[in-house]
Amino acid sequence: MGEAASPTALQSEELIAVLGQLFNHVKAHVERVVAPYDLPPACAKALHLIDGSMSMKELGNRLACDGSFVTSIADTLEGHDLARREIDGEDRRIKNLVLTGKGLELRARLVRDLFSDDFPGVRQLDAHERETLLALMRKMVAGEDRAAVG
């Protein structure tokens, strides 16, 4: 007969299961919002992240993906006239992505539509609950960041 799981392990298991369910709701929300714009979700996320001029390497770091995928994102954004590549003024080896006027307009619409009060999971929380959740999530991430460094 196996040993019974501890209450902490059961709680962790349930927490992970619920986080997975919430992630699926968020993913569906993002896909639903970006679908009318004929953009893959990764490109919409890139639009959200690009603020001013951003190197493709920095974008890859923020998206947690490799350079070849960033190139694909840049190609898609350029193909939709949402961004352009520019040579960095200080280091000609670096290519930066800059949003076009059309890209800036779409970015504003996406941010409004994606992060409205109708965001999955958040829509059921009052302001105090949102602040508490954010503080807890920051604590969780900070702890993992410290563990990864140490």
* Average of per-residue pLDDT values: 90
- Counting DSSP E segments of at least 2 residues, the number of strands comes to 3
Low-confidence stretches: none
Structural classification: mainly alpha
Total helix count?
Answer: 6
Q: What's the overall geometry?
A: globular
Strand content: 5-15%
For the largest beta-sheet, the strand count, sense and barrel status come to: 3 strands, antiparallel
How far apart the termini lie comes to 38 Å
**Which series of helices and strands comes N to C?**
HHEHHEEHH
Query: Helical content, roughly?
Result: 55-70%
The strand order across the widest sheet is 1-3-2
Kindly provide the radius of gyration, computed on alpha-carbon positions and rounded to a whole number of angstroms. 19 Å
